[in-house]
Fold each of these.
Amino acid sequence: MKLQYKITIFMTLMLVTVIGGIGILTFRQVENTIEHQMGNNAMDLAVTIASMDVIKETLATTKDYRVIQDKIESFKHDTRFNYIIVMDMDGIKYSYPIEYDLGKKYISGGEERVLKYGESYVSADKNVLISAIRAFVPVYYEGEQVGAVLVGLLNNTVYEEVRPYIFNFQLTIAIGIIVGIIGAAALSYNIKKSIFGLEPKEIALLLGQRDNILQSLKNGIMAVDEKGNIILLNKNAKDVLGFKDSDVGKNISNFNLAYTKEIMDVLESKESIYNEEVRLAPQKILLCSHTIMKNHKNEIIGVVSSFQDLSEVKRMAEELTGIRKLTNDLRAQSHEFSNKLQTISGLIQLEEYDKAVKYISDLSERRHEILGTLTYKIKDVHMAGILLSKYNKAAEAKIEMKIDPNSNVTALPKEISADDVCSILGNLIDNAIDELVKVKDGKLYIKINSDANELKIIVKDNGMGISEDIRDKIFLRGYTTKSGYRGFGLNIVKKIVDAAEGAIELKSDSGTCWEITIPMGRGN
């Protein structure tokens, strides 16, 4: 049976049981109350009749049926009571609704207590013929009981009077049950609609499938509610972030991670973020998307975050792009050597042998100087390699690039890798070269030093500088003053430096000067 029908039937049975039960109990209570009131009224009238002098004297002295019958008939029609019987101690009737029964013994029963013991009481006479409430009261004359009075009222008489009220009550009960059944049907339909017409088994199957899908995804998935409490973690998210099953339900502010901090920022800003790189560790980079979750009322109910571990992808990409960089560097170097060879060839043809020798000597000295600095001062081969490639690129663009001979790098901070330093140098130098090609006699100065306390990088050019009105925007992801899909370099630099708790200082008096300081250890 479908869930909708089960709910409807269950609610209907509950309503019928509850409302019907209440109705029956209420009706029984009303019935008892009516019978009790009937008995009290009958008793009051019986006491009144028993106290009449004419009744007492007649029973005690004359034994005249007609006197008592006429007296009773004179006021009986003004009451609601069906029969009033006066009898002597032998049960002989002195008044009765049917006159031919006068003088006969009362045989309906129930009078024994009043005649034998002189008690006053109310009893119900329910037999196959009639159903009535009767009140019995003894009659005393000069201190001696001389008879009894019976006042009776048929139940049907009272029920006829209260029948409209009982009908209204029953109608109200019936309407209540019908409205309840309609409400149960509407509720079951609404529930069915809310769960998209799915049955419990289908919902359980879908939940199981959803869980299997989430757990099998290579991407990490985390969901939090509007307060930042974790409501969902898949296997990959737990493995990458180091979370446990017991962490579900905890607030993400308890975890000191750049990733969880970004989720809190999204909750506060109420704006989704897509394809954002987050650095967990020097060799652990995540590509994250944090999407705001909303309910049908368009209210924010949390954030669902998905991420991909870029560490391996980035290493593969660097290997692939390294071939392109090497090709470009070789092309630039070949082009530069070709220009120099043509210059030497021209000097020889002009028979300017001394100038040709001097030109070759100057070239050799500059090459020896740059290679010596890179070989002996920059111990990391990755950094030396990128500096050499950028030197050749600058030379091809007719830009004078100088690496300070006092540069000296023997160790790197714990929080960053050689690749991170290469990213910083590569992005800053590329930006400088892009600007210096626009000016005449472009000059680029590089200095790198490390000691026990910090790593310091200086990149300085004599370009046009960075205007004040865009300095607050240059680190934003995707912001650029150039054409094309650019604007990511400085954002990457900022993230690397911030992750290592370093500092970036920008000076733009005559050209642009970047000074980056990264402590060798956190807290230094």
Amino acid sequence: MRNSWRTLTAMRTALILLFLLAVAAIPGALLPQRSLNQGNVNQYIADNGWLGEFFDKLQLFDVFSSWWFTAVYVLLFISLVGCLTPRSIDLVKQLKAPPPLAPRNLARLPHHAAYRTTATPEQAADQVQKSLKGWRVRRNNGDGRVSGSIELSAERGYAREVGNIVFHFGLLFLLIAFAAGKFVYAEGMRVIIANEEAPAFCNTTPSAYDSFRAGLLVDGTDLAPFCIKVEDFRTDYLPNGQAEMFTSNIRFSEEVTTTDPDTWEPYTLQVNHPLRIGGTRVYLQGHGFAPTFTVTFPNGETRTDTVQWQPTDLLTFLSSGIMRFDPPAGMYPDIGDRLEQQIAIQGLFAPTASFDGNILSSRFPRMDDPAVAIDVYQGNAGLDNGGAQSIFSLDPDLMESGALERRARVNLMPGESTTLPDGTEVRFDGADEFINIQVSEDPTQIWVGVFAAVMVGGLVLSLMVRRRRIWARVIVDGAQATRVDLGGLAKTDRSGWGREFDDLRDRLATIATATPVLPEPSDTASSRGADPDASWKDNIR
């Protein structure tokens, strides 16, 4: 168990688990997710047969709630905690401990230089210590590794390890913030017709949404109150039909009791430019078309409705959908007769119509020349059976059983109509655009941003700061001259620390208080690897 714990809490294991977490998230980006769109998941399974069913058994349509993704997530969390705790303790010990004693042979270090001076050993040691301002310095007067010498140990760059620890703690708390967010978040989607006649949407209850998801600690009774009124929607297209920008002008108010939307604050809602109200964000997520039909019953009463239809071709926005109409109250006193006289419309809508004979298609996503191709049914449309109803397709069982009978199949332009055998008239009035907004509320989002910034700051600090050490030994050599040996060591030389050592060496040689005494070539070494016969101009003064 001890060995298993050590393996789990090793930094290598944490990196492997972090890589696995990234790999495990890939299916969540490539495959439709049940939590986002159940219909897309069902369609994928239907289109791919056994492969789709196999993916479903592997929970690839529920990646972020699957047992294997949760297992990697939890193991990464445990690994980070077990790895960072001893490292943090070691860092505290390092910060409290003095720099290590100088090695016995400084000439073996990657960076080494030596010079002689007529200054006394105390004066030479003081010069070195003053030049190490900003370093943690430890001074040994005769009690170092070499007896009778003055040794200076200096260390710098503790912030590198601090940055490393901060980065990993930032990652740890980021994972905690993501996990906590799953308990306290709320997210809903609502389709709103983009015209001035559409009613305002108010964020006061989950029932106001077409779909609503929330964390385990959210019951929907404490949603941030606000109202939105959508005034219009505009899409900018490139000549090839590709959308360039979606824009919706809206008005909003945090005072839900305000009844006049004209007094609300205006806002331009665009993709990647959400409306922020406190901790709640309102996103423009999608759009489509909502045809309007008017049904005139034989007694002269009319029913008009506008319902969003689902885009089936995202390039041309050819859309499909249905509409249902109940006969006017009192027109059929018998409830059974009334159920048999419901009107259902099912078909296609093209924003820019193109006909191949009687077959309708769309050639451009903008609504330049709208048309519909519809089947009109009469009978029991299922409005009063109490069961769940799709808003995009009729129940095929109703048609197969004869409960719904097709009375007409026509192509209609705006203003055109068709008349059923009993005198009921169905008129296509045109279409409006609708937008799909997503309202997200997550109290942990600010902490996610904070910990992400902490991660970046710790990473930058760990990459830019260099951990390095310098030792100096001052002795009186055989020629009765004061000799100063310098040695330097860094964890990496690729960061340019050798240049810093050379600058320190040159600065010490410049501030020597007496005329330098050149040593014998055999007594010197160079951090730059200079030729010993080159007058020691780079390394020795």
